[in-house]
Amino acid sequence: MLRQSRAYVERGREPAGARASGLSIAAAALLVGGSVAYHYAIYIPEKDQEAKADLAAKAVADERLEETKAEAAQKTADAKRTAYKVCVSSAQMSYESRWNSNCKSLAEDANENRNNCLLRGLDANYCSSTYPAIPAQDCRLPSANANSYDQELRDEKARCLAEASNGLESPL
Question: Which domain holds residue 149?
């Protein structure tokens, strides 16, 4: 049999099984080569593009998130500034109201005392100098009252600052 296969080889022909085996190997090599080529030429670049697209989408989402956080922080800061200004303004108005209320009371007392002085028949110059007219607003208050009102204003402003720093609303 060895002779017979040599005879085929010598005449340029191979046995049929060898030819089929060679074709199978060639087809398998072609299939493997095609698979490898597909993997490197199409599959991997597609995956790389998908990964790049995913990374780009994540970067855009992260950027939007950071912008949203920055906007929220800015709104919070603006709200705190506004709340602080409103609080300080309210404290100042309350201070001025207390001050002017005290001035009004002192002005009324001075007018009543001056009128009583005049009704007793005392000299008008004496009554006016003893009980001078006091403006009903923005008057000079006795030191104890003025110091008390000034301290209350400072305390209120400090409370406003503390609330703005802590982001707390007024407990009232």
Answer: 58-166
